Amino acid sequence: MASNVGVDNLTAEVRESFSGTPDKRLQYMLDSLTTHLHAFVREVSPSIDEWEKAIDFLTRTGKTCTDLRQEFILLSDVLGVSMLVETINGVETPEATDSTVLGPFHMVESPARDLGEDISPESEGPRCVVSGRVVSVDGSPVPGAKIDIWQADTHGFYDVQQPGVQSIGNGRALLTADQQGRFNFRSVVPMYYPIPTDGPVGELLAATKRHPYRPAHIHFLVSALGFRELTTHIFIGGSDYIDSDAVFAVKNSLVKNFAETDDAATAAQYGVQNPFRHGRFDIVLHPEF
Ligand SMILES: [Fe+2]
Hints:
Elements: H1 7-17, H2 24-44, H3 48-64, H4 71-78, H5 81-90, E1 127-136, E2 146-151, E3 172-176, E4 182-188, E5 193-194, H6 200-207, E6 213-214, E7 217-223, E8 230-236, E9 255-256, E10 259-261, H7 264-270, E11 276-280, E12 283-285
Parallel strand pairs: 1-11, 1-12, 8-9
Antiparallel strand pairs: 1-4, 2-3, 2-7, 5-6, 7-8, 10-11
Helix pairs in contact: 1-2
This protein binds fe (ii) ion.
Fe (ii) ion binds near residues 103, 105, 217 and 219.
């Protein structure tokens, strides 16, 4: 027999329906989701038409995802949820390098490259060198740390956005830090770019008069045995949109000055034409709890 609950009892009944969930963390999350989602619906009181539009939006968001495109991460990003999750998790490790969002473009495996290699061999434009060390919170080096790097080119495009123009792996690298935790690589200075606007997330930004741009940045995912994995970026100091990132991911500690460096000996050491731009980034990992 169908229950005949009034809307006043509905929330309690749905919460109760999850009470037998064996996984207590899952039960807690579903209980909280029900409570907050129902409160949201009561507050905004959507029409049937609006509810159908919301379902259609989420359906199209899912259908826009492919092996090379992640519209749901993008939706999480523009709603600030990705940054909130990163920040909540980073609170436990304040001594470590700040984390920021993964973003939607970590879609393919980065090619293993040697230290010092050019990670954007197909890209034209002004070259930069990025160098630094991976250390623990006590300053000791983390030898052999794995550093996964991905970035847009000088026109603001990732490899996966330009089939036939860039090969998969251009603008990406998996580096291994040396015995002193040191690393360096050559690349092009990335450009600020718009997040993809030809899907449902783009519709959301257009409907709300928000711009889609992200300031120029390079992504890092750093891991080492015995340490917490770090997901972060460095932002190119002075880039447009540094104060209005479409995905709310800028932290001041991650803004690096890619200084113009006019030093022939150092340029030769890194294998770039003089002058070049040099970004320095020391990465502090927190030991696993
Ligand atoms: Fe990015």
